[in-house]
Write a structure and sequence with these properties.
Order of helices and strands: HHHEHEHEEHEHHEHHE
Number of helices: 10
Strand content: 15-25%
CATH architecture: 3-Layer(aba) Sandwich
Largest sheet: 7 strands, mixed
Radius of gyration: 19 Å
Number of domains: 1
Strand order of the largest sheet: 3-2-1-4-5-7-6
Distance between the termini: 40 Å
CATH superfamily: Vaccinia Virus protein VP39
Number of strands: 7
């Protein structure tokens, strides 16, 4: 008889390989991947996140890197594989890992495996960098994933992550309406304030940046009778405010929709 986690893993693999979503999930995806992604691209959110994560990696030439939950590779996977001493990408999906493996064929020291990060079968450890883009919120048991991350990091290892937040009241309200109908709700657990503070307690948070705080309202300023240039100027100013204020202010950070974290293992 399959364990509960194995059944959940199988459901995730099927979902991401087939992209079969119910109507509610397709509607949310349209807003998130359509409207919000266009805004992120137009006002520089995507570029800022890419450049930020790249800077957080630092010099990779002597580092062992784990690309956690990478599927077929995200925007920085190939950069990590090209520049690190040793790169391992893992995901639950054979389809995703097969595609990534083909891209890595000519890169020495780089490989990809179908693997459950929490499984006892995953023996690798002593990673200098764990990259988790849109991954950590897939684990319902926050204490379990924190313990496993600590186990797999070397003494000075870092985690670079990016995950959705559901700490602002408007987003929490919208997600609350949508969640009962969500196709992937069994493994979607956007960060709450409590989740964030658990990571803050477990690791040294060296830097953080939130996006889509005020800037999330850019989706609606198209209805304001001002020029396109003025709308874009306002949206970019909102993004810059989110970016800078979330660095130090919990209030501003929790108003954002997504959060990037640079975390380091605490010294014993």
């Amino acid at each position: 008889m399959k364990s509960e986690r194995k059944l959940l893993n199988d459901r995730q693999k099927e979902f991401y390989d087939t992209k079969q979503k119910n109507a509610a999930t397709r509607l949310w995806s349209f807003f998130r991947n359509g409207v919000l992604n266009r805004i992120k691209k137009d006002i520089g959110v995507e570029r800022d996140i890419y450049d930020l994560h790249k800077s957080w990696f630092g010099d990779l030439s002597q580092k062992k890197v784990l690309d956690l939950g990478c599927y077929a590779g995200n925007s920085l996977s190939f950069y990590l594989a090209q520049n690190s001493k040793e790169y391992l990408g893992i995901d639950l999906s054979p389809k995703g890992i097969s595609n990534l493996s083909r891209r890595l064929e000519k890169l020495p020291g780089a490989r990809a495996e179908v693997m459950d990060f929490l499984s006892e079968d995953f023996k690798e450890k002593d990673f200098d960098v764990i990259y988790a883009y849109g991954v950590l919120h897939h684990f319902k048991n926050v204490d379990e994933i924190i313990a496993k991350l600590n186990e797999k990091l070397n003494q000075d290892g870092i985690i670079v992550s990016h995950d959705p937040l559901q700490s602002s009241l408007p987003i929490k309200f919208i997600r609350g309406i949508y969640r009962p109908f969500q196709s992937d709700k069994a493994w979607e657990w956007p960060f709450s304030k409590k989740t964030y503070y658990k990571f803050e307690e477990a690791f040294d948070i060296k830097e953080r940046r939130g996006v889509l705080g005020k800037a999330k309202w850019s989706a609606f300023i198209g209805f304001i009778p001002i020029s396109e240039a003025k709308r874009m100027e306002k949206a970019k100013a909102w993004h810059r405010g989110d970016w800078e204020n979330s660095l130090k202010s919990d209030k501003h950070m929790f108003d954002c929709m997504h959060l990037s974290l640079l975390m380091q293992k605490k010294t014993q």
